[in-house]
Amino acid sequence: MITQTIKVGSIWLGALFFLFCGVAHADDALRVKGTRYSFQLMQAYANYNWQYFEGKLPREMPVCWAEGIKKGKTPLLEAVIFGKEAGGKDEPQAILVDQRLGKYSIDYAFVLVLHAMNHIATEATDDDEKFQVGMRRLAAAGAFDGLW
Predict the structure, then answer these.
(1) What is the pTM of this model?
(2) Which candidate, 64, 9, 11, 16, places its Cα nearest to that of 36?
(3) Where are the alpha helices (DSSP H) in the chain?
């Protein structure tokens, strides 16, 4: 698999990381085969940001379909890419979703966008209690109704 460098804003992200669904940092190793922007996923992100996150997440967030996302030999379904702008704090730069999901269930892709957004909101990994509380909050607010 070829590692693709992704330019987001002023940051080159060529090496990334994920744990099945999770967060990545620009200095972690992740292999991404190819990406393309998804208006449908970006629109879902914008709507969910206002509806479930009070508009507090970054407004301009690329949400892309990816041909393949792997950490080592482990295939991943989605990922949030974090990177630093000019030596600053790690900030979310993009959300990637495996494009195969779009062929089978756009609803599941929307669930993964919400999952990724919760990583951004809580700044936590899947096993962190803060992240789990955020997922339960989304479920209680009806974010997943009709999606699963």
Answers:
(1) 0.74
(2) 64
(3) 39-53, 100-104, 106-122, 129-140
